[in-house]
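INFO worker-7 received task bundle
INFO bundle size: 2
INFO processing item 0
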Amino acid sequence: MALYEGIALIQEKQAVVLDLGTDYTKFGFTGEAAPRCIVRTEFWCTAERRYKRVYEYKTPEELYDNLVNMLHLLYFRHVLVNPKERKVVVVESLLTPTLFRETLAKVLFTHYEVSGVIWADNPRMCALTLGTPITLIVSVGAREAEVSAVVHACPVLRALQSQPLASHAIHDELARLIDEDNNSELHLSDDIIEDIKVKTCFITTRERSGKWAAGETLQCKSVQYPVPGRAAITISGKTRELAAESLFVRDNELASLPDIILQCIMLCPIDVRRPLAENILVTGGTACMPGLKVRLAQELRHLAWWGISWCRRCWCHKSYVQRCVCKG
């Protein structure tokens, strides 16, 4: 190896990893076990004199300005590195709009003059950390829940499922239940609703959920939450337990979170369905809610047991989302 090649290898620095989420952004370096910073995806807009979210844009030019301000905040306030000296690994969803991806590339190459950018999809990066060849990734984020199957480092695109069952759906239901508890429309901000969810709410079991739906009164302690500038509000035990039930409510299109997980499994090749059911990774901010994994396992076992029916014509098994070849 030539001397100058060895010097170049020594001087090469760690690349930065960027994950621009809807509510929170993760920013760090390759080779480290955790991000250097997890901050809200917002910045102080001097023109509007308020904190503005990156995803609040109407034109490509406005999105460009939002990304410039957000990356400036990340580079020069949180990690204090020169963007020209480090390559970038962008972790994104498989459903990221093309406009957002192209605008982010334009900001990185034109404005910050980075040396190189690699785009990596979120499901494949999550499966890479487990070291398993076949993994089902359930990402429950801010706006939507995405379920994708990763088979030997390749996402199965035809089985990709997405529904608006995430943190914002829980916030809407929690705000409605809090208004019912206090007999008035409180118009609480998103920050207060999120703080109430994190500090007081949990996901109940399937058995208790059925009892609440049947009208039974169960024992669950209510709490008082102090709100600045007004009297403390009451958070009943029912509200604490049922705030996240919107993730599990079924409709005519079978669009609950357990339903889309089973639909994703059944749309994959038959020889990988069992490994997918055995290796399910639940990720995202909403995945940290207490009781989510237990409730999800209960719902999946129930649907897997009752999701098999018999064809009335040829008496063969019909799967959960597929019909028999005889259309019976």
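INFO item 0 finished
INFO processing item 1
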Amino acid sequence: MWARLGSTCAGWRRCFYAALLFLSLSSVRTDDACPPSCVCALDSGTVSCQDGSGSDTGIPADIPLWTSAFILQRRNISTLKRGAFMTNETELDMKTLSLPYNGIRVIEPYAFLGLPRLHVLDLSHNHLECVSGRAFHGLPELRSLYLNSTVLPQGAAQLTTALSAQSLRNLLRLDLAGNQLKSIPLLRLDIYNLHALVLVNNSIESIGKENITSLYQQRHIRVYISHNPFRCTCELEAFYYWLRNSSQCQDAGQLVCSEPEAKRGIRVEKLRGEDVDCMNENLEAVSYVFLGIVLALIGVVFLMVLYLNRGGIKRWLNNIREACRDQMEVYHYRYEQDSDPRLANVAV
């Protein structure tokens, strides 16, 4: 009897453990389930959620823990809040996060918290107008950051602070094309490990000496900067000589002058040294100033001579006036004689 009872208890224990195992497995499968209106590929670790409609908008609540690449497009996401991609406060092993065409306007601090192994972040084609200075904190492994055609003018200044995060020290590629930027929004280049800096199709007229010095020091950086309205004046001197002496600019043959009018359409690399020589421009400006001073002195001397000889000049003018008056009286007298026929007959 005791043996039968022991075997019965052992059976119950096995059933109990089996039930616990079933529940645990069920809970794992629930956590790893594909989010609604998304397409999942477990073998490649890809989750794609596109063209949300109705209630299927925003960021899915439960992103599978096995997600390696997460693609989210056209889901009407206006704000990325703190830890927006964390699942139940759990870090994800995600490597790629693609968020284009979502209408994102605001990135709050630590929005990408919980993605410590993220390599690629694509925020292109959004409408960023407010970017927190700590927006990119917590991304120590980030290699590529795509911000092309996404930063509005009011967000450009904030972007400079956000990109200064120490957590971006391993960044290899930074794409800032098509943002109407007027300058490079990076305070320093030596805090990154950049290999590619894309600044195509912006509003950059010139690049300052500080950035040029950094580019000389970071020889491994490759820069793409075509389709910008360069002002080919003295201000472009440092950039011009960097372009001539370095092979870092990959699209150097496509850089064209926009101003001044006389140089419009000319390729920057085809300019002559004197076209951007600050010393020549300064000398020309000085020569014009000197000429103006000389002409002013001549004018002052002439006025002084007139003032000192004002008495003689007055007498000379009076003599001319008297001579003109006598001459006019003679002409008037002859005119009266010619116009009176009686005087004409007397004369005959």
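INFO item 1 finished
INFO post-check item 1: The first strand starts at residue 39 and ends at 41.
INFO post-check item 1: The radius of gyration is 41 Å.
INFO worker-7 idle
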